[in-house]
Amino acid sequence: MYLCPNLYENYMKSDALVIIPTYNEKENIEAIIRATFRQEKVFHVLVVDDNSPDGTAEIVENLQNEFPEQLFIKKRTGKSGLGTAYIHGFKWAISRKYDYIIEMDADFSHNPNDLIRLYNECANEGADVAIGSRYSVGVNVVNWPMSRVLLSYFASKYVRLITRMPIHDTTAGFVCYKRKVLETIKLDKVKFVGYAFQIEMKYKAWKHKFNIKEVSVIFTDRVLGKSKLSKGIIKEAVFGVIKMRINGLPK
């Protein structure tokens, strides 16, 4: 299909940005970007790369020649953590007035085909935050060892108990936010950078009384590349939620 430049630019406009943080994701990044752009709705993608030594950023930059109006990259100088990568992306999205901002991993643990479901929950069904939930209907996790499933499942139960949030998958990383949520939350005061970042963002949104809904999805463990989960990230989550519950939010 041929479109003249002005029509092409309008055709490629989008109200939704997918933020993909990366560190050493050369095996997955091109495939996840192409899968996102194959969706029936037009999404834009921002890759926030933490100076990957494996050439992830270069792959994205080459793809920008093919998708100049849809694909963007921000390169950071060091490995600064998942939370700061997303905050960097959130601020970029807010400054460019995207109405819907979606977090998604690069490793296909989050299915790009579910993007439209999260988007619709916010755009058409009244949610301010839509969570791609592994645990809202049973346990929907594929290819994880049982020890990892139990750790994740009971971590969410633990967080729900401590914080009182009515959310089944409190640690989920596949989330769509309306821009007004991110504009309300003081992003510079988000404290956690690892696993607990996802918990803190949901907690702040809930305390601000935004409408949070869960969309049941199937989570599939990565096939290519290496997981970034570490003991330090888990420790941050375990002890961080207690501090978060005690401190609450400023009046």
TrEMBL record:
Pfam families: Glycos_transf_2. InterPro entries: DPM1-like, Glyco_trans_2-like, Nucleotide-diphossugar_trans. Keywords: Glycosyltransferase, Transferase. GO terms for cellular component: membrane. The keyword Methyltransferase does not apply. One of its GO terms (biological process) is glycolipid biosynthetic process. It comes from the Bacteria. The keyword Electron transport does not apply. GO terms for molecular function: dolichyl-phosphate beta-D-mannosyltransferase activity. Residues 18-185 form the Glycosyltransferase 2-like domain. Belongs to the glycosyltransferase 2 family. This is Dolichol-phosphate mannosyltransferase. The lineage of its organism: Bacteria, Pseudomonadati, Bacteroidota, Flavobacteriia, Flavobacteriales.
